Amino acid sequence: MSEFSVGIRQRDTISVLDLKGYLDAHTAPELEKAFEKQLDDKRYNIVVNFSDLSYISSAGLGVLMQFIEDVRKNEGDIKLSNMSSRVYNVFDLLGFPMLYEIFNEEDEAVKKFLNKTENLS
Amino acid sequence: MQSHMKLRQRIFLITAIAAILLDFLYVIVQRALVPGDGISGDLFHTVLVLIALLAGGMYYFRSTATEERSPVQLIGRTVIAITIYLLIIGIVQLTAITSFNMENGRVIPDTYSTLVTAAVLAAGGGIAALVVFTSLTRLIFVKRRKTTRRNYILLLVISAVVIILDFISSPNGLAASGLDTITDILAVLLVAAMVVNAFRFSWILVLSRREKLINLLLSLFGFIFFLILTIYSAESEALNNSLLYFHPMLDSFVGICFLFGTLYMGIGFASTLLHLPTAKEFDRKKVEISSLQNMSRLITQVFDFDELVATTTHLALEVSEGDAAWLELRESNGISRRTSKSDPGSSASPKTRPHAVKNIDPEVISRLRTPEGLPLQHLVFDTGKPLLIQDVPSDRRIAASAREMRNIGTLVIAPLMSRGDIIGLLCVCKRKAFEFDKEIVDVLFAFADMVSIALENSALIRESIEKERMEQELIVAQQMQRSLLPHVLPQSPQFEIAARSVPAYEVGGDYYDVLPLDDGGLGFVVGDVSGKGVSAALYMAQVKGIFQSLRNDGSSTRDILIRMNTPLCSSMERKSFLSLLYAELHPGNGLLSFARAGHCPLLHVRDGKASYLRPDGMALGLDATNRFAESLREERITLQPDDVVVMFTDGVTESRNRADEEYEYDRLADCVLRHQEASAKDILDVIFAEVRQHSGKNEADDDITVLVLRWKDGI
């Protein structure tokens, strides 16, 4: 059976979700829970780090779609980073790069968030 | 039947009253006509007394039968009857209105007032004795045994003989002599029979503690009053003479009843007293037994989870006489045993939630924590053993803030185990400390085992119902999906088309269609809805409908997809989307125009070369703004003879083998290249065969859909 896990880290005001393993229709609810927790805690600046994710199915992408609207409504964003080429191809094929900012490194995504908050203040 | 019974009863009552009144009249008239001699040995008078006694007895006996009195109530009636009688005697005694003469050993009332008083005392004594007689008879027959009836009849027979002998020998009766020895022997036998019959107290055992206390008081008063009456009837002239004068048989009947009453109440008092110390224990055992019986209810309630947990705490309180109870159940109870790793810093004990909380504020429960701030159930999850805290306010395992609440004194937490896992906890508490003894705790633990089984069964049933439901849904979805796919593909000498979609067992969202266009062209649709089941099939149906309505209005493939996006965005769930490739073939010139909405690219093979054509475009249903249109491009190619075009879904290229390698685009291109001379049908078959060979299993993880178009020749 495919295994999947989500780790949650805090970097400044930013939540980083570390995905690991296979993200498919069976494991997507785990990721849903992680996002729900962020929204419950009113954390809307979210970086998803894909470095240890080996596979993503359309159900996994669906989770991102499920939350992006609420996150952006609250002045936040979901940014994606550290995708393997295999995972990136899935995103790319479906046209997700037009909807999400995808970074090579987590730091870049974090920096982008921090710059934004600095600019605001 | 009931009214019939009532009618009979009424007849008995009227007969008794009539006999008493008639007898009073007769006695007074006799007195007037035959002064001095009275009514001693008078047959008519004797018959009237007997009729009154028998009819009254029958009436009262029947009334106690239909009302189903409890033993304590029967004792109570007896005590009330003799108390009233005692009061009457007391009044008579105080007013001292009786005076009797002795003539030839006979008792004769002096005055008419004495006569009337004697009549009243006699009637009262008769009625009281009847109440005592019938009540005690009923009591003797509670939980009767084989010998009960025999012993009772023996008592009746001896009593009857004694009464008759008294009548025969008494100067106020027939005044026969020489019967003293027999009378003495019979008296001894009578007392012996009374003692044997008086030991009929098995009903005391099953009384509740409260009932036993009531019974103790009643039988004490009963004993004392009977004793007074028995002694008094021997001592008091007024009472003794009244009854004796009125009728010696009545006198001895009343005497026997009162004596038996004394014995019965005395023994009853003693045995109640003996049973009292164990009464509480007995009560508890009784509750235990009934609770154990009730527990079988748990097993029948597995179909309704809420009812099951509510019954559980209700019974837990009943079993333990606790003040409050609740269940802590793991949040994903029974449905999924996979432990969640997404909780940061989660401790060893899983998260639980209180269910079926009875008589306690959930706020109080949430404050029950260890000094480290962990929920108290942590202690049980850690050890897997039940926890008994006898004195919560001073127990150091509990945080000071929780101890200060002072509304929990004793607390028991029993784990609910299932297949070696703790699935939840049963918590019961008392307001005061040191209230649960070992027996209660043991019963609670046994109870917790039964609850575990019931909960486990409930979860299993829910799972199987859910599985059944999902299987049904899958079947419906598969049927819908199949009916949405084209049954017959168009044929033409210019081209060959072959297509197939093989649904995976669970995940299903692939769709393809071939639509004839008005200008003689053909539209090809290959799509993949994210999600599965009925909802995916419904989106497919929507897509099919949109294509049916849009395909012929002269729009480009790009325009058609753009016009589809808006309705799909509004109808699809947020997390759902649809990747789709739409191509139109114009047989007149072999032009193939197509647009790709986030879908797998189109494979084009010509002259031994394979290329994937991948115009830009994002999936449908993702973004309702202009971004979709901005992203989308149309591409056109003009087909040449023997060109092969393959459209497919990601089930093909993402099909994985055991080494976790995907089939990938390159393998697919190679496969088609190797068979580019073959017919469309053969190419299709070969692709499916290779994919299956690659994955090494018959059942695919995802739907696999392939559409092969082979262009033969332009006109």
Q: Give the amount of beta strand of chain A, in percent.
A: 25-35%
Total of domains of chain A: 1
CATH architecture of chain A: 2-Layer Sandwich
Unreliably modeled segments of chain A: none
Which geometry of chain A do the CA atoms define? globular
Largest interface summary = A-B, 26 and 33 residues
Tell me the fraction of residues in β-strands of chain B, as a range.
Answer: 15-25%
How many alpha or pi helices of chain B?
22
- CATH fold-level name of chain A: Transcription Regulator spoIIAA
Shape, per Cα inertia axes of chain B: elongated
- Helices and strands of chain A, in N-to-C order? EEHEHEHEH
Q: How helix-rich are the residues of chain B, as a percent range? A: 55-70%
Instruction: Give the number of DSSP strands of chain A.
Output: 5
Characterization of the model:
The complex is a heterodimer of chains A (121) and B (715). Chain A is 44% helix and 31% strand. Chain A is α/β, with parallel strands linked by helices and 121 residues long. Chain A has a single domain (4-104), classed as STAS domain (Transcription Regulator spoIIAA). Chain A has a 5-stranded mixed beta sheet, sandwiched between helices. In chain A, helix 2 links the parallel strand 3 (45-56) and strand 4 (77-81). By secondary structure, chain B is α+β, with helices and mostly antiparallel strands. Chain B has 3 domains: 2-277, no CATH class; 300-336 and 348-463, 2-Layer Sandwich (Beta-Lactamase), CATH 3.30.450; 485-711, Phosphatase 2c, domain 1, CATH 3.60.40.10. Helices cover 55% and strands 16% of the residues of chain B. Chain B has helices at 2-33, 43-67, 71-95, 112-140, 146-169, 180-198, 202-205, 209-235, 237-246, 248-275, 279-300, 305-320, 362-367, 377-383, 400-403, 438-484, 533-550, 557-571, 627-631, 650-653, 664-674, 680-695; strands at residues 100-103, 106-109, 324-330, 352-358, 387-389, 410-418, 421-430, 495-502, 510-516, 522-529, 578-586, 591-597, 602-606, 609-613, 634-638, 644-648, 704-711. In chain B, strands 4-3-7-6-5 form a 5-stranded antiparallel beta sheet, sandwiched between helices.
